[in-house]
Amino acid sequence: MLPRCAVSVCHVLVLVLCLSAAEDFDWTKNNYGSFYYGTFPAGFSWGAGGSAYQTEGAWDQDGKGLSIWDVFSHRKGKIQQNETGDSSCEGYYKFKDDVSLMKELKLNHYRFSISWPRIIPTGIKSDHVNEKGIQYYDELIDTLMENKITPIVTLYHWDLPQVLQEKYGGWQNISMISHFNEFANLCFEKFGNRVKYWITFNNPWSVVVEGYETGEHAPGLRLKGAGAYRAAHHIIKAHAKVWHTYDTQWRGRQKGFIGISLSGDWGEPVDISNQKDIEAAERYVQFNLGWFATPIFHGDYPQVMKDFVGSKSVQQGLGTSRLPTFSPQEKSYIKGTCDFLGIGHFTTRYITHKNNPSGRSGSSYFADRDLAELVDPRWPDPGSEWLYSVPWGFRRLLNFVKTQYGNPMIYVTENGVSEKMLCTELCDEWRIQYFQDYINEMLKAIRDGVNVKGYTAWSLLDKFEWDEGYSERFGLYYVDFRSKNKPRYPKASVQFYKRIISSNGFPNQREVENWRRKSVETCSSSNQLLAAARRESKEHAEMPKVWPLHDEV
Ligand code: NOJ
Question: Which of 140, 158, 264, 531 has the smallest number of CB atoms closer than 10 Å to its CB?
Answer without folding.
Answer: 531
